[in-house]
Design goal:
Length: 134
């Protein structure tokens, strides 16, 4: 009963903030199996590890690993803190992540989990504990 309620609350929150992306873990698994990149995706997942921030030419990135709710696939999430606020995720949190999927042999990564201040890329987000970070 808890998982359907969480999914319902997540959907209501996404609609309330104007987001239209619906989680589709099956599509992400297919993208992984077919080595597809880049692809816009929305994941329904659980945080399994929080990693140290990573600094690159494009800014400081919050990093964490999630496991898709519908399967055994894990993904690295990179969230640019130079553009968006930190999503205060913790191990065990249920999150909805929307962004650009990039394939790699470890499962892949999702980045562009924030708005694009230059308007050249579809905006992404991380939803954690009912709050959307974009």
């Amino acid at each position: 009963m808890r998982r359907p309620l969480l999914s319902f609350v997540a959907t209501v929150a996404l609609v309330a903030c104007g987001a239209t992306a619906q989680p589709d873990d099956g599509a992400i698994v297919q993208d992984f199996q077919n080595h597809q990149s880049p692809v816009e995706v929305t994941a329904d997942a659980t945080v399994v590890q929080v990693l140290p921030d990573r600094v690159s030419a494009s800014g400081t990135h919050e990093q964490f690993i999630v496991r898709l709710t519908s399967g055994d696939l894990t993904l690295l999430v990179e969230h640019n803190l130079s553009i968006a606020p930190r999503a205060p995720v913790a191990v065990g949190d249920h999150v909805i992540v929307h962004g650009e999927y990039i394939w790699n042999a470890q499962g892949g990564l999702i980045h562009f989990t924030h708005h694009d201040p230059e308007g050249r890329h579809e905006g992404g987000f991380i939803q954690d504990n009912g709050t959307v970070y974009d």
